[in-house]
C-alpha cells in the first residue's frame, strides 16, 4: 500500500506535474503579449473604426443623393415625356386634318 501514497495527480501530456504551463501555452502567451501583436491589433481596430465611419457617411450621402433625385429629377423627366407626347399628338392630328405639319422650333 505504500505505492498508493506516492500516487500524484494525473497530468496531461505537454504539461508538467508541478502546475507550470506547457511549452505551447508559454509560446502562445509570449506571442500574444508581444508589442508587435499589440500594435497590429490596434491598427486593425483603428482601420475597422475608420471603415465603419466611412460606410456610415457613404450611406448617408447615397440617401441624400437618392432622395434629391426622386424629388427633383424624376418629375422633370416625367414632364419632358408628357411634352414629347403632346408634340407627337399634335403632329398626328395635323396630318389627319390635312394641314401641313409645323416644323419644330429650336
Automatic annotation (TrEMBL):
What ranges does the record give for the region Disordered, renumbered to this chain?
1-22
Keyword line: Membrane, Mitochondrion, Mitochondrion outer membrane, Protein transport, Receptor, Translocation, Transmembrane, Transmembrane helix, Transport
The record's Gene Ontology cellular component field reads:
mitochondrial outer membrane
Q: How does it sit in the membrane?
A: Single-pass membrane protein
One Pfam family this sequence matches: Tom22
Chief localization = mitochondrion
InterPro entries reported in the protein's UniProt record: Tom22, Tom22_pln
Question: Where, subcellularly, is it found?
Answer: Mitochondrion outer membrane
The residue ranges crossing the membrane are: 61-78
GO biological process terms, alphabetically, are: intracellular protein transport
The record's PANTHER family line, in alphabetical order, gives: MITOCHONDRIAL IMPORT RECEPTOR SUBUNIT TOM9-2 (PTHR46867:SF4)
UniProt family annotation = Belongs to the Tom22 family.
Q: What protein name is recorded for this chain? A: Uncharacterized protein
The organism that produces this protein has a lineage beginning with:
Eukaryota, Viridiplantae, Streptophyta, Embryophyta, Tracheophyta
Amino acid at each position: 500500500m505504500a505505492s498508493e501514497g506516492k500516487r500524484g495527480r494525473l497530468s496531461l501530456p505537454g504539461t508538467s506535474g508541478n502546475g507550470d504551463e506547457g511549452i505551447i501555452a508559454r509560446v502562445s502567451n509570449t506571442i500574444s503579449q508581444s508589442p508587435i501583436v499589440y500594435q497590429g491589433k490596434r491598427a486593425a481596430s483603428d482601420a475597422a473604426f475608420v471603415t465603419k465611419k466611412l460606410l456610415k457617411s457613404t450611406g448617408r450621402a447615397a440617401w441624400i443623393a437618392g432622395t434629391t433625385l426622386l424629388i427633383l429629377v424624376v418629375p422633370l423627366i416625367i414632364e419632358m415625356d408628357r411634352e414629347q407626347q403632346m408634340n407627337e399628338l399634335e403632329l398626328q392630328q395635323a396630318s389627319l386634318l390635312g394641314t401641313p405639319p409645323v416644323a419644330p422650333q429650336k
